[in-house]
Write a structure and sequence with these properties.
This protein has 261 residues and is mainly alpha-helical. The chain has a single domain, classed as Growth Hormone, Chain: A. Helix 6 packs across helix 8. The longest helix is centred in the first third of the chain and has 40 residues. The chain is globular and about 55 Å long. It starts with a helix and ends in an 11-residue tail after the last helix.
């Protein structure tokens, strides 16, 4: 559902903006937000008793300690952080749509929805044919595809080709994300899962915001196309270095086999 909303939302937003410009778009966002609040208020309140845990710096930092001691997990999460930091091509899409591909608001909305559409295709395929072996190499392959497609997108001036490359960006991102999340779930004990997931979300969200800033800063210096190419090259370089630096991650076959050092 999340990917479906990421596909429909940008395309619908671009269409609304092209018809009614700003007011129609923002009023629609407000209406949908109110609907979401209404549905959220209907959720049942379920309170379950929980055991009290003695709080200390050791328990607070247990998630970080576990990640540091589990090299495949450390490699997977840091790889995602670095790739997200340098591969933020979606922040440049307004420039590509207006100045390079010469598209209007509707075209921009379709471009913005393309990575989510690619991710949805992969998610559907993996739900039917899950990855059972060679999880580590497949994750590196997905991230390599993400970086290579970003480079090609930065060099493209064809609308159809650019759309297909954004599909591939979403494909590679979803493939690596599914494997990384599966690895986290299988390798983390129950008593530390919440803290490990909190670190993962913090790294991912922080890198996404910093990546947007990095893309804009580099675009100011060498242009949007140069920024996209630079980001893609950086992602490929990071993947290559991480494959050498974290051989345990490269050798992961099944996520359930990962154990802390």
């Amino acid at each position: 559902m999340n990917k479906l909303s990421q596909i429909v939302g940008p395309a619908l937003g671009g269409l609304l903006y092209s018809v009614g410009e700003g007011p129609a778009t923002y009023l629609s966002c407000l209406a949908l937000a109110l609907v979401a609040i209404g549905f959220a208020s209907m959720l049942p309140s379920r309170r379950k008793p929980f055991s009290e845990v003695q709080r200390s710096w050791k328990t607070v930092l247990a998630g970080l300690h576990f990640i540091w001691s589990t090299k495949p997990l450390l490699g997977a999460m840091s790889l995602d952080l670095m790739a997200t930091l340098f591969g933020g091509v979606t922040a440049l899409l307004p420039i590509f749509a207006r100045d390079i591909l010469e598209l209007g608001p509707t075209g921009f909305g379709l471009l913005r929805s393309a990575p989510a559409f690619g991710g949805l295709i992969v998610a559907g395929a993996l739900s039917r044919y899950p990855i059972r072996r060679a999880a580590g190499p497949m994750m590196f392959a997905g991230m390599s595809l993400y970086g290579a497609a970003t480079i090609a997108f930065g060099l493209s001036h064809n609308v159809a080709l650019s759309f297909m490359l954004l599909l591939l960006i979403g494909t590679g991102d979803m493939l690596s994300t599914v494997i990384r999340q599966t690895l986290i779930q299988f390798s983390t004990p129950d008593d530390r899962r919440g803290r490990v997931l909190a670190v993962n979300v913090l790294c991912n969200q922080t890198a996404a915001q910093l990546g947007t800033f990095e893309s804009g800063l580099v675009a100011e210096l060498i242009g949007a196309a140069g920024s996209a190419v630079f980001g893609g090259v950086a992602v490929v370089a990071v993947v290559t270095f991480w494959a050498w630096r974290f051989p345990a991650l490269r050798r992961v076959d099944r996520p359930s086999d990962v154990q802390p050092d």
